[in-house]
Amino acid sequence: MLRYIVPKLAASLREDLVIDPSNQNMEPLHRIAPWVSVLQPKVYSQLLEMEFFPKWLTTLHLWLTQPTSDYDEVAQWCVRLL
User: Fold this and answer.
1) Under a CB-based contact definition with an 8 Å cutoff, are residues 59 and 21 in contact?
2) Is the pLDDT confidence value at 2 over 90?
3) Residue 73 three-state SS
4) Sorting pLDDT into bands at 50, 70 and 90, what band is 80?
5) Residue 56 to residue 75: CA distance in whole angstroms
6) How many of the other CB atoms lie within 10 Å of CB of 52?
7) Which residues does 25 contact at the CB level (< 8 Å), separation at least 6?
């Protein structure tokens, strides 16, 4: 699993997942979700930590630091991701 499956899941998130609040497509994240029951929680969380959260945090930071940010809109987007 660690040698073949996890690297492919990571590559899928790295290459296919684009964090875009104006047109968010969560399909790449949904494709790896079924693996949560097969992978150890530590492995799955590391996958998200390395491939999902850096992208999400970068976008969130950029959005929040804009002078015209609408914090209610940001909050709604974050809730929709969960």
Assistant:
1) yes
2) no
3) helix
4) confident
5) 13
6) 19
7) 18
